[in-house]
Amino acid sequence: MQLDLVPEIVVLGLTVAALYGMLPVAIVLTYRISRTIGFVHGGIAIFGALVYSYLVRGPADGDAAHFGHNDAIIGTTPAILIAIAAGAAVGIGFGALVMSRWMAELPGMTLTVISIAGLLVIGNLSGYYIRPGGLSITPSPFGDGGTRIGDVVVTNHRLAALLILCALVAALALFLSRTYTGLAIRAIADDVEASVWCGAKLRLIGTGVYGASGAIAALGGAMYAAAVAEPVDGILLLLVRGMLIAVVGGLRSLPLALAGAVLYGILETALVVGFFGDVSAGGREVTLSCALLALIVIAARVRKESFFLLERRQA
Amino acid sequence: MSGLFRAPGTGIFEGLETKSRPVIRAMGSPASLVLTGLLIAWGLLMADYRVFGLTAAIPVAILGLGLLVLQGWAREISLASAGVFASAMYYFNWLNRDDQGQGLPWIVAALIAIAIATTFMAGLALASGRLPVIYLVILTLGLQVTIEKTIFPIGYLSGGVSGGNGGAALIDPRPSPLGIDLVGDRTFYFFALGWLAIVLVLLIRLRRSPAGLAFLVMGSNRQSAAALGIPPVRFRILAFTLAGFLAGVGGVLGSMFYTTPPLFLGWDVETSLLLLSIPVLAGVDSMAAVIVMAAYLYVMPIELERWSIEQNFIASVALGFGALFGARGVGGRMQDLERRRRYGRRRQRTKRKRMATAVLRESSGLAGENTSVLTSAERAECLAVLERWLPPRPEHDLALRATDLRLSFGPIHALTGASVDVPVGQMVGLIGPNGAGKTTLFDVVSGFTTPEAGTVELFGRDVTRTSSWNRSRLGMTRTFQNTRVIPELTAGDNICGGAWASVDARTASFLAGRPSAWAKLREAEEAGYAAARLLDVHLYWDERVGSLEFSARRRIEIARALVAGPRLLLLDEPAAGLDPASSSAMFSLIRRLHTDLGLSVLIVEHYVRAVLDSCDLVYVLAEGSVLASGIPAEIAANTEVQERYLGTRLDYLLDFSEDPIPQAPEAGR
């Protein structure tokens, strides 16, 4: 082990965590309100990434000579705001659908399958109709520059992503603990029927939560699009990572999901920079998967979760 | 004499069709005959490209049957199906290939490839078998990504990232099993159909066996499975193993078909998600629908090519559409049509009539002591069948002894030293206000919750640390306050679902189609039908439980518990949700079963009058411990119980105060 790499691993790991951490936040939020895994956020993230890329790169016109030209429709800041708003709108639409009186009575697994269908339909339709062209790399709303932290230079984009994520988790934690709506969301997460009897407006709050998490997912997608060359394929992988990270927090805890993202980011960076020696890409994946599986099993044991317990809660 | 050799549908078993020869029964339905005819005609009459398209669907149909076991039966979701399928495909190609491969005989290569696929799924389930379902869904997604990152990029397996293994050939010519030349696509089509037929035969037999029903019970509700002696973790692991095995079988067949392994891009996460549409549309247990769905996914894109409609889009729309059909899927609707055809207008006509008269019949005929429409001879015969089925009576004074049970949930002390005895052959009631700890006590006694202190003995044996399913196998079964039957299945399947632990035949014998195994199942069916007749739900035997009224569902749950072979029956609020007349009828039924079968019964109930009328011994629980115990008259006269629970102005207290107090049973504390 090369201990001199530790500072670099921590700094880079945190910035990797920032990219991985957005989707788990959206997944945790919707799980709390509907007890289903928010696969649909993968579709919304793809949608957000493509909307943002389209606005800042312009449409693909199939003309090879045109490749590399900047045909931006609008600037990066309004573009990301539009992407967030569009994500929120899609989230509200999906939320209104699954929180409707008819759908709310369907079993959790059925709603999860509907969420998977949502991911595929939104992802496929977005990929088919929204085709960004122009520049090969999507520009970041935070510019191309970097910031030196110790011996490590971090792009402003990744640094901003990390700050946004931390601010988001802190704001949501405060919102959930200090506001009436937050209290209602927590009440719904614990006992839907009792919270409705106590006056929580399930459909309104549920649709709102889907809207907020849709906005976060679209933001995550847009930030990811500005960090990599081919965002669409990567976002599915990002979603998988995000789900595994969210499970570390039992799909209910935002701070634990954030901690899971940080641990995952640091471990992945450590493997990539060779902290544990030369590990192949496959070996890295197996190590990461086994580490996450172990973490999930341990976390479930600490929380004394079993399928009997969850079944009772759902009943 | 075994029921197998008895003419079906005679005497008290009128209306009970035999489940033996399930393959012939399944293949005899018009839907199956039409599907078989279409598949054969397709291979004989269609153009080459269409035959090719449907051949490509057959390995996926086998994979889909594995998903049906996992998702339809066990209600688990695997999002690694494409990766596992492709792994088997790539490994078979490499192991069987002579050129830069291992050159193993095709059968050996096939077995190893299937074993690899099976190990992936079984390994994941073994590592995480006790985690909640929703976690496991995500972990299977992790498995898919791990396969993509580790196996897919290996050049000699899949051709590598750029395909083609850097120019080296990956061609593995089709084998010639038993000297059959499979080079022609049409010949291979019928060869693949043969594989599919073998898989179908085995799966139909498994589905009709007690293990198949146990999968469904486990999938529907883990706790009720455990209460019936079905180990849920083991069946969960088995479901994943079987799904992995069938993905392996499909993958090997696919590898033979393509000869050169297809690019791994077609077997990524998205494909795994899309493949979900097969079991989602097929529903709980329609194998024919799985085949139709697989064919739809592979044949429709060829037909819709002119409109540039992709397979992904078709599958995602199918997935969303299929989910709206609920757990029964489109396949369930098809089965309903088939059921309607088989049982004809008689069922349709009687259903409405029965629903209209059910309330009247139950409130008049059943509420009295004469609770059944059976004649005395029929009743005696039903009891004799059930008595033969139940295990021998244990020679012990106490069926259950729970001593000084203590349990807290954080600051809440649910049990604070509760002690309860159930003497053998007695009906014991447990009453108390809400929050007294009755259900917690039931959960501790059933094995769903481990107490912090205290012991539970079952027929003299300490079972405090024994799992709930093993307690059931020692002779204790329970029902639940919220009735936990499987709405998608018939009453007969629901009732026989309790028989897994009691049928003395190995699942392998059922798969092999051994008549002795099916004879054992027939005995279980007869016991179930006898229980159904005693509880007056036999008319619903072939009807889906989801369409029945509440009281019938509850009686079906009790019949299922009886088939599990209990000597001690725990009933959690059997009268909850019933009107007073139906509640009285329910207690009369329970009382008669208890008397006629010599069952020990522990019953939790808020309907105090019925408990005091029916039970031999009553415990009153308050704040986690026993406030009072004794015969009903003593409880009714107990001033502390009156003050804290019963009140002092109820009419039934007068009834008991006028009666002389009978002698308390010796074993009661």
Summarize the structure.
Chain A is mostly helical. Chain A is built from 13 helices and two strands; from the N terminus they run αααααββαααααααα.
Show the helix and strand layout.
The complex is a heterodimer of chains A (315) and B (669).
Chain A: H1 6-34, H2 40-57, H3 76-98, H4 101-104, H5 108-129, E1 146-149, E2 152-155, H6 156-178, H7 180-190, H8 192-197, H9 202-225, H10 231-248, H11 254-272, H12 281-302, H13 307-314
Antiparallel strand pairs in A: 1-2
Chain B: H1 22-27, H2 30-45, H3 48-73, H4 81-96, H5 106-128, H6 133-150, H7 155-158, H8 185-208, H9 210-220, H10 222-227, H11 232-258, H12 269-275, H13 277-282, H14 287-303, H15 311-323, H16 329-364, H17 376-389, E1 398-409, E2 412-423, E3 427-431, H18 438-446, E4 453-458, E5 461-462, H19 468-473, E6 476-478, H20 491-496, H21 507-511, H22 515-534, H23 550-563, E7 568-572, H24 580-597, E8 600-604, H25 608-614, E9 617-622, E10 625-630, H26 632-637, H27 639-646, H28 651-658
Parallel strand pairs in B: 3-8, 3-9, 6-7, 7-8
Antiparallel strand pairs in B: 1-2, 1-4, 4-5, 9-10
Helix pairs in contact in B: 2-8, 3-8, 3-9, 3-11, 3-14, 4-5, 4-6, 4-11, 5-6, 5-11, 8-9, 9-11, 12-15, 16-24, 17-22, 22-23
